[in-house]
Amino acid sequence: VVRTEEDMLAFAARQLDRNQKDLPFTLIYLLDDSGGARLAAGTGLPDGHRAAPAELSGDQALWPVNEAAAGHSIIIDLDRERFGELPGGAWSEPPRQAKVTPLTARGDVPIGFLVSGLNRYRPLDEEYRGFLRLVAAQIAGGVASTRSFAAQQQRAEQLAELDRAKTMFFSNISHEFRT
């Protein structure tokens, strides 16, 4: 059972890595409170690759944080000068484009975005777009579920602490009445 956000993202990355024909590389970024994003998981790219910065912020970011945070999907042309040498996944040639898909769960406010390197031999038709939306929805749902679980755990711990304090209080009062 996956209970933490990190475990869920690692599981999602393992599953995405199994489909290197349609997803030569993927990057999962989660938005932070400062308007930036942090790399939470990825497939197909080695650690420290130019196309997978650990932190993104503002309009000057490599991937369009502001547009994704506003809920917009974007197609990015992948030029070697800007993104470096990219892997081809199951193909010998690297992808020409990537799609940035917002991760939206429970409402319309994105919690992050998925960057997917696109299969250069397949047109980006409605079926492929639907597949990418479904992948993003599953990741967003998983993140939302683990965050909800963590919040419930925290609330249960707070209630248990309150119960211990109440028990201690009544125990002390009872002792005072007896003496």
Task: Describe the secondary structure blueprint for this structure.
Elements: H1 5-17, E1 26-31, E2 36-43, E3 55-57, H2 65-69, E4 74-77, H3 80-83, E5 97-104, E6 110-117, H4 126-178
Antiparallel strand pairs: 1-2, 1-6, 2-3, 4-5, 5-6
Helix pairs in contact: 1-4
Largest sheet: 6 strands, antiparallel
Radius of gyration from the alpha-carbon trace, in angstroms? 22 Å
Q: Give the strand line-up of the largest sheet.
A: 3-2-1-6-5-4
Beta-strand residue fraction: 15-25%
Write down the overall geometry.
Answer: elongated
- How many β-strand stretches? 6
Query: Level of helix content?
Result: 40-55%
Structural class: alpha+beta
Order of helices and strands: HEEEHEHEEH
Ranges where pLDDT stays below 50 over 5 or more residues in a row are none
